[in-house]
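Tutorial, part two.
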Amino acid sequence: MLVRIAIATLLAAVLTLGSAQEMCASVGGTATIAQWSEPGNLNPLIFPTQYDTNINELVFARLIRPRADLSFEPDMAESWTVSDDARTLTFTLREGLTFHDGRPVTAADVAFTVTSMAHPDYAGGRFAEISILEGATEFREGTAESVSGIEVLDERTIAFTTREPFAPFLAVVGGIFVLPEHVYGDVPVGTWQEHASNRNPLGSGPFVFGEFRPGEFISVTAFDQYWEGRPCLDRLIIRFGDQNTLLAALLAGEIDAAPVPIDGTSSVESAPNLDLLVVDTLSFQYIGTNMRGPILGDPAVRAAIAHAVNRQAIVNGLLQGYGSLIDTLFPNNHWSYPTDVAPIVYDVEEARRLLDAAGWTLQGNVRSKDGQRLALRLFVPTGNLVRERTAPLIQANLRQIGIEVEIRTMDFATLVTFILPREADGTARAVTPEDFDLFLLGYGITRDPNEYLSYLIPSDMPPNGFNFIGVDDPAVAELMLQGRVTVDLEQRSEIYREVGRQMRDMLAWIPLYQAQDLYGVNDRLVGFGPDVRRVNVNVARWSLR
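Running the prediction step on this input gives:
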């Protein structure tokens, strides 16, 4: 029989509480929040960063959305069914859904969105997520005219069929924002990244896109026809900029909510009209490596770097205790984290021993081998002060073991041009050893460990996906593929834990720390409450006192 995920209880609760407007502490007004970097792209299918997603969550909507425990509840889909063989998911849309321009949202729009991710010209980095669909690979390779595993049953009903049982497919669907076919359908998929909609997106979410002033802010306005009821706020402004500038604006009352740098916690705590929110996250910071070259392709060098960096000093000093160490690439508060993973111990002598054994000999202050100096470039994106301040500490730590590090600071958009490089004509290309050496970034799970797939399988090295580090390990790839088709949660957990153990040994990603997020919120903003889903939790019900 089919398993139906009904929402009668949810509807009853909503009816009991009354209309959406009655759930607002007040109606109207403009709130201003902040983030530390402006988005680079507002097409949610083109290499979305967290800064992009923060905006996309306001403008676009999905079939389903995550709860705080990362299970799912209805969004634009009022219900869904799962077939007995666990291969077919069928979603039924709510009645009366519309995009912001008044055009109806239909199952055809959903089909168009997902099909576009398999288009031969699509270069947005997310094909791996839906490659399990029947016919997706054939369509991408040009041997089929459509994706056979996507079937529009009627205007409100769509079915997805996978080649085999696929445990994370519900999470995949939960991460896809639906695009309007009447806007994107006339634009060649290969040109989406340059299309004007990247600065003026149109969706069906709680807010209508308003204005984008680069370097300053984005504004959105309430969507009157949003299925869950018009948002309480009339307008929401998202400012971006330097952390200290935004903190000053928060303290001055110009911003209602903003992330708070570690150095600003005491200022927020002492402000009579501000509260400091400490939020556990599912993200962490790491040193990324380019394993294609002779230096970082040497596992001894990667291991030496890991042992030489004093990560606890970063947590104690730069984070002031708002965080913890992490020893592999999964967040330590997620079910995929292997609690028995070997800890990465700070041990300068062990780091030196590893380099000595691998033939990296000290010549003056810098080691060399076969005429190659052990000199590396560390690319550091701006926007996160703790991460920026980590760079010179890493530089000093590695100097102790004979590794020379040159720090190159740049904005995130510039970093992307190195780790996801393009030819002069704008087409994506493969990463080379010359593109980068080391970089500092953060990552984490938003829905399911399968999100790491494109980062860890050889077929998804750029230009095909996100494996810019160059992980090429058959055992890891096989485990990641097993995790996709294993339905039993405990079995899946052990698969990903083993991935975590093997990636700990490989140290392609050198984990640093898992920080807690800090937010300052003005008393006048009601309902603001970030959690592991990030900042926009319940945004349609935010209001002002």
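The CA atoms of residues 194 and 426 lie 10 Å apart. In part three we will examine how such features are distributed along the chain.
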